[in-house]
């Protein structure tokens, strides 16, 4: 599995495509009040599929890192009692199957893949490198490089795993602390995202005459277009501000 790409099913593409198109159609109707503008503009809502793919890739990689940490715990436990690296992966796989009931869990699939590679007389190094290349995660890549070097030179594998696990834990704790600190800002960002459409809907209901000028004159359309662009830019910037990576 390539963790940097997400292959959507036809149902998912249809669902997210409809969401993007309908959402952009409603937004265009609010800002322009004309079907002739809203319908062509709504086509760009298809781009939401690409955005959603990136979101799903991020969520999947986050899950993988959390599961990888558990895998390291299981590995270090087996190696610390004197088992070989090859046997340690087999034991770790069995331990992970107890922790995660779903056989399709990412780390179970990856450790299973490594165990199968070992059974076919492939080196652990090549299996780990393949995993690291597909994951494209800094911690997994660093662990793989250090692990391979230590295995070849006789380094302390248990200490390497403990260090990597501690590093991942610290990063997760920092991320969680940051998320706690900016929780309020995230709610503010969500509220502000709905504020502009809410104001326009309010004006439609209680002061529709004001919007007639904005919808039917050239200056009004320019003003609404400028407002829409500023709204989209501010939404993107605010999302980047609250989505902090460690």
Summarize it.
The chain has 246 residues and is mostly helical. 83% of the residues lie in helices and 0% in strands.
Question: What can you tell me about this protein's structure?
Answer:
It is a single chain. The protein is an all-alpha fold and 246 residues long. The chain has two domains: 59-168; 182-246, no CATH class. Helices cover 83% and strands 0% of the residues. It is built from eleven helices and no strands. The chain has helices spanning 10-32, 35-42, 48-80, 85-99, 106-119, 124-135, 138-153, 157-181, 183-206, 208-216, 218-242. The protein is elongated.
Helix content percent band: over 70%
Structural class: mainly alpha
Number of helices: 11
Largest sheet: none
% residues in beta strands: under 5%
Shape: elongated
Average pLDDT? 87
Q: What's the end-to-end separation, in Å?
A: 24 Å
Following the backbone from N to C, one meets helices and strands in this order, namely: HHHHHHHHHHH
- Tally of DSSP β-strands: 0
Domains (count): 2
Q: Which regions are unreliable across 5 or more consecutive residues at pLDDT < 50? A: none
Alpha-carbon Rg, integer: 25 Å
Write the layout of secondary structure elements.
Blueprint: H1 10-32, H2 35-42, H3 48-80, H4 85-99, H5 106-119, H6 124-135, H7 138-153, H8 157-181, H9 183-206, H10 208-216, H11 218-242
Helix pairs in contact: 1-2, 3-4, 3-8, 4-5, 5-6, 6-7, 7-8, 9-10, 9-11, 10-11
